[in-house]
Structure formats: structure tokens, C-alpha cells
Design a protein that fits this description.
The protein is α+β, with helices and mostly antiparallel strands and 277 residues long. It is built from seven helices and 15 strands. It folds into two domains: 106 residues, Aminotransferase class 4, branched-chain amino acid transferase, N-terminal domain (D-amino Acid Aminotransferase, Chain A, domain 1, 2-Layer Sandwich); 152 residues, D-amino Acid Aminotransferase, Chain A, domain 2 (Alpha-Beta Barrel). The two termini are 36 Å apart.
Length: 277
């Protein structure tokens, strides 16, 4: 996709002017937070939830800034008016500085990553990598460990890597959230150990409204045999079944296919709105 505009501090500008100075120490050192928002048929999906998480991430790393939620929403909507494409991603980058007034909010339209369609039917393979993000609940620019894990996964011919903490518990993927399913219950790693995914939150809401129960608990590699199956969620992929983790083969239960159909229907009809409750 050929995008012509981006947003800087709420001002829509030509994309050729999109630049971050080489002497921007905050950016070079990863002193920033970000979000990726899917725009589907011209609608930014779960916009308020993404911005709430962006602001929460900034608070976690003590990133003081000059922006408010309503202004961020207005900035997104202003950029949408300049973008002809119907389905794409928006990346929001909030970069800190020495002073509040040095903070910068960039909003950049990007071509989305779409998994192969066969992955939704046949599932994907993963490896595991020992890595803990510095601030698990914040989506920061400090993503070197995740990047290296993802690179290792791709070199092994896998879709993604699952990250393990120092207790060898599964936390999340490098770009994805991780969940398991058994009968009509979804199991998730404990919230204080992970980044709470927006799509994962939406999937959980849909599941709860359709008879599934939700449970947070520690999940180790040895525990995986206890579950009927497991899957990933993300902004770009929605729900992807997992069929292999390292050498462990995983089944795709019918209840997971049921949940995928329920979420697809919800996504197509919700007009980008995820209620607070």
C-alpha cells in the first residue's frame, strides 16, 4: 500500500516528512511506547482500548507527555480522512523527552501482516525462548529480546516464539498473546506476567458471552498436555491455532474452531466497538 500521510502531534503531514532525528536519545534508548491498531473498512478497531493501553504503558515507564486521550482519538480520526485504503494498520508511537513538551506522538499507516489462510485451519508451529520483558505490562520500544526470539523462530521455520520466564512458565508470544482451551474453559497466563492483549480481551469477552469460562493460571510446557489445545491472538491475526510447540504436537479441538467462528462474526458486526464491561 502506498500511504501519503502520517500524523505528528495531531498534525497531518506528507509521509515524506516522517523522520526521527538521529540525535533523539529517547528513541535510540527505547524510551517510548507504542500501539498497533487495525483499521477495517475505514474503522479503527477497539480504538479507545488501544489508547488506554498506550497511556497506561507510558505511566508504567514514567514517560511524561503532553497528550490526552481525546486529542489522540482526534489525531487518529484526522489521519483516517487522508487515507484512502480500507484495511490497514496504524502504528502509534509515543516518544518521551527531557521535558513534557519534548514528547512526540507519531501515527503512521502501515500495510498489515496477514498469516497464510491455511494457518487458520491447519495451525502453526512455535518454538520457546527464555526471555522476560523488562516491563511486562507495558508495550515499550525496548523489544530487542522479542525481536531476537522472533528471528530465531523464523530461522527454525516457525510462525512465532513463545517466551518463557525464569520459572519456565509460558507468558506470551513475541507479537502475540497465548491461551489454552479445555472443554469450555479458556486458560491464560497470569495478567501481571504479560501484556494484556486487546484482541485477547475481545476474544475473552466473546467467549464469556457464549458459555466459555475464563481462568488465569501459571502455564508451563509440562502443563500443555493437560489441555485440549492452545492458540495465539493478535491485532493482525485474530485467533491462530497452534499445532506444534518445540517437539510437542497439539490438537485443534472443535471448541476452538467454534470460538474462531464466533469471534469472526463479532468482529464483522461490532463496528470496531469493544464495550468496557
Amino acid at each position: 500500500m502506498n500511504f501519503k500521510y502520517f500524523s505528528k502531534n495531531g498534525e497531518v503531514l506528507p509521509i515524506v516528512e516522517a523522520a526521527i532525528p538521529l540525535d533523539n536519545i529517547a528513541y535510540a534508548y527505547g524510551y517510548g511506547v507504542y500501539e498497533t491498531i487495525r483499521v477495517y473498512k475505514g474503522v479503527p478497531y477497539f480504538l479507545e482500548h488501544h489508547i488506554d493501553r498506550l497511556l497506561h504503558s507510558a505511566q508504567i515507564i514514567d514517560l511524561a507527555h503532553q497528550f490526552i486521550k481525546s486529542g489522540m482519538i482526534n489525531a487518529v480520526n484526522s489521519l483516517l480522512a487522508f487515507t484512502d485504503a480500507e484495511t490497514y494498520n496504524l502504528k502509534l508511537l509515543l516518544i518521551g523527552g527531557d521535558k513534557i513538551t519534548d514528547s512526540t506522538l507519531y501515527i503512521i499507516p502501515l500495510s498489515p501482516f496477514f498469516p497464510d489462510r491455511g494457518a487458520y485451519k491447519d495451525g502453526v508451529s512455535l518454538i520457546t525462548v527464555m526471555h522476560e520483558r523488562l516491563f511486562p505490562a507495558a508495550k515499550t520500544l525496548n523489544m530487542l529480546g522479542s525481536y531476537l526470539a522472533y528471528k530465531k523462530a523464523k530461522a527454525a521455520g516457525c510462525y512465532d516464539a513463545l517466551l518463557l520466564n525464569n520459572r519456565k512458565e509460558i507468558t506470551e508470544g513475541t507479537k502475540t498473546s497465548f491461551m489454552c482451551v479445555k472443554d469450555m474453559t479458556l486458560y491464560s497466563p497470569q495478567q501481571n506476567e504479560i501484556l494484556e492483549g486487546i484482541t485477547k480481551k475481545a476474544v475473552s469477552r466473546v467467549a464469556a458471552k457464549n458459555g466459555f469460562k475464563l481462568d488465569e493460571r501459571k502455564i508451563t510446557l509440562a502443563d500443555l498436555r493437560k489441555y485440549d489445545g492452545c492458540f495465539l491472538t493478535s491485532t493482525s491475526s485474530h485467533i491462530i491455532p497452534i499445532t506444534k510447540i518445540n517437539d510437542l504436537k497439539c490438537a485443534i479441538p472443535e471448541n476452538l474452531f467454534k470460538l474462531m467462528k464466533l469471534f469472526k462474526k463479532f468482529y464483522a458486526n461490532c463496528n470496531g466497538i469493544l464495550t468496557k464491561k
